[in-house]
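Running log. JK asked me to keep both predictions on one page so they can be read side by side. First protein, sequence followed by its tokens:
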Amino acid sequence: MARATFLIPAVAVVAALGLSSVFIVDEREKALVLQFGQIVRVQEEPGLGFKIPLIQEVVRYDDRILSRDMASLEVTPSDDRRLVVDAFARYRIVDVEKFRQAVGAGGEEFAAQRLDSILRAETREVLGSVSSNDILSTDRAALMMRIRNGAIEAASALGLQVIDVRLKRTDLPPENLNATYERMKAEREREAADEIARGNEAAQRTRAQADRTVVELVSDARRQSEIIRGEADAERNGIYADAFTRNAEFFEFYRSMRAYETSMLNGRTSMVLSPDSEFFRYLQSDQGAGVAETDGQ
């Protein structure tokens, strides 16, 4: 009976020691077997593992893709316009042995803080080398790739693999919004003034061209009218000359009648002439009257 009394506790102790020497690794994690703080074995495959009870311990790390949101970061691009940037990174623990050596007992949270410092420094360096317009544009894939590539080497020293870095938000600080708005407004007003000036210049050229065209057309029309008038005058003079050569007296009579008609057209014409003036020759001369009757016949 006494022997059974000692046997049962011994079996219980052996069973407890046997159970404590067994551990299970989930497919979502990796495990390290430590002995007095030193790594003795890495268990990366899921399943059962064994350790020495009371001497060795098991530390587990997440094998899934992890996410880290960086705190808002203020950067100064190359054009000295300050921006507030929010970003996040996706990473994974790929080398648990190096990870343990780098962070010690600090674990995943301590590693995330160190990764956050790496990403913040790389983000400042990359975004500080470009203009704010490049950062604020929708096409920022190249910038995010540069930040990821720059952080890969530093993160690998922690046993981490940086998979992706994304910029979630890039905004101007509140104190810079009004100044930026006024600057954008001034730039748009300057562009509008430039467009108006170019439009006025084009309109002036068009008006000048139109005025020159008008002058050319009027000058050509006047030239043609003068040519036509000269030809008409020449034809008229020719007719007069022909009439004069045929009957000089009738020609003189006709010209006198036209002069009488023109001078007395309004009915109130006053003329101061000598009574024996040549102007009234055909009104006073019997010869003129006879010539007129002869010509009329």
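And the second, directly underneath as requested:
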Amino acid sequence: MNTPEYAEMFKLESFYWWFVARRKLLEKTIKQVIVRFKNPAMLDVGCGTGINYNVLSKYGETVSCDFSKDALTFAKSRGINNLVCSRVETLPFQSSSFDVITALDVLEHIDDDLAGLQELLRVTKPEGLLVITVPAYGFLWSEHDEALQHRRRYAASELRNKLTISGFEVERISYYITFLFFPIFIMRLLQSVFKKSVYPKSSHIILPGWLNALLIGILGFERFLLNWINFPFGVSLICIARKSSTKAD
């Protein structure tokens, strides 16, 4: 992403419904999987401005990694010290270094996503986990994706296949941001039809406080339902994948 988009994220992440709901989903997921490990070593790949460090560092020693020096500057301003500048495809860590790796809206930025997944497998410990989120459905492609410099969006079957080919075993995969799928689809469609901007811009629209809180609440209910079901469609995908103990580095 370019510097203005990182600045926008840094400004919005603490309160904007999209970021707040996703951070709550991350914490819920980490709480569920972290019980498998004692004193886990964790890596947040593509950490962006670093706000997820506040969640992850509560559960284990966490290293935050991003290729963008702009992103790492914002992360450092949050007081984060365990920062590494690196591409996902060439991580500067020994094989089998981490129990839990998060790659949250990262894979869609990589030219060769299979190479990125294989590198993530390499640095994951046997029986370690990858928690990954990606944007869903190519037909949702819009100016928002262009502004964030995405390469692609994913269907669940594609993400599952790429993780499997790379050597991960998929434990769970679900769409999410399902209840807001149709409003977001219509908004992205209208933005594409009536696009006026010369340069692509992300679609973060500042909402009245009550509406922002309502959307957080709706996605909170969706998060509650994820205890029992996997959603069949949505704006994003979340997946938990495991490195088998039989996989060689």
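Observation for JK regarding the second prediction: The domain at 3-241 is CATH 3.40.50.150 (Rossmann fold).
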